[in-house]
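Researcher: I'd like a structural prediction for the single chain below. Treat it as a standalone chain; there are no partners to consider.
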Amino acid sequence: MEAEPAAQATLLNRLRHLFGPRVTDTTTEEGRAHQRHRRIALSATASGLSTVIATLVSLITVPLTMDYLGKERYGLWIVVNSTVHMLAFADLGLGNGLIKSVSRAMGKDDRGQVISLVSNTFFLLVAIAGVLALVAAVAVPSLPWRSLLGISRQIRETEITATLAVVTACFLTRFPLSIVGRIRMGLQEAYITDVWRMAGAVGQVILLTFAIKLNLGLPILCLILAGLPVLTDLANWATLVAGRRWTLPRAFRISRRVLRDALGTGLLFLVLQLCTLVSYESNNLIISSVLGVERVPDYSIPMRLFMFGPTIMAFVLRPLWPAYGEAVERGDLAWVKRTLQRSMQWSLALILPGGLLLVLLANPILRLWIGDTVSVERSMAIALYLFIVESVLITALSRFLNGIGAIGFQVACNVVLAILSVPLAVWLAGRVGIPGVVWSRALLCGFTVLLPSSVYIHRYFRLCGDTKTTPTSAERE
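Model: Treating it as a single chain, here is the predicted structure.
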């Protein structure tokens, strides 16, 4: 009987050790490890809670909006969001490059470098947003969106244009502002961003409920869902600058050298983003074009259900990226290897049984969630299970690869994936239907990304053991 209180006391001590405000000696490897563990614990907890809340919000809003808008308007909303968010590549990879560079700079305790990185990235994104706004001002009202997206005559042209305009305007406003989350992440303070994210998700449910009760149209619903993140980013900026005035972007810190370096790193991330968009975000467009926009929910809703767990785990694992980068910069390789192994073990322990339950219970859950509107074939459920297992493993590995700066390797893997994914998905969609699209994703991800990444990382740690130092990029190739 005494063992149980002792175990509880040990657990409480560990939690207090992780979450407490205790200051540690960061000049030692043990002190730095504790500081990383504390930041990771805070960020992982906040990310997990934020993702759970955001997903619960999604579970609430999907039946609300689908019943209110109807299947075709809901499909239009999904396709418009997918189309506009494909413009995320226009940041030239600068956001992800900023995470990598800030975490490395903090590993050197170089605050001046952080100021230069933030200033140059922010003002470059403002310029890009301005150019995109000019393009959108011409494209949104003039392109034949009805035929491009396969929309019936039941939806008015003005409604289509207004929906596109609202989502595009919110996206472009948030375009430069959203790097505040990247800065927080590079500083290993992603948990603060997630607090604001939770507040925005709750606000979306409240405002969306009022909008439906007032019988407002699709453009207003899109304004709520796309506009609130803009406000939470502004609030995040205000709290960041209040605590660290030196992070405020300064125009006089713009430098050709810093811009060139940032673009060099960013362009690799850009290619990686483009490949990811082609491989994943294009599936809604493929289904819309091949099978019709009304079939998009038959793919997007089951995918959202199965991606519930991987989405939470992706956010929980997210703080590892800057922690790996800072640890590698300081030479704490033992901590890096130990943390990677644990992240893989925990990922598999959670996703294998959880995903299997979804395979067995997917249709009952969908009926409880949205009624009989959408169902999942068994072959599609099995393909989704394989995909989500691969997804969490790839996420854990990619956090490490980003931390060590192996961006070029990831680009090579994802270029192959992108080249093969679209034609295979189109071919299988026409012959097998929606399950074929899912199987194409699952099989290609395993062979083009997961397997090569595992081999690469094994080689990296073997070189670490041989040299007792961090391998150079040339040695890793």
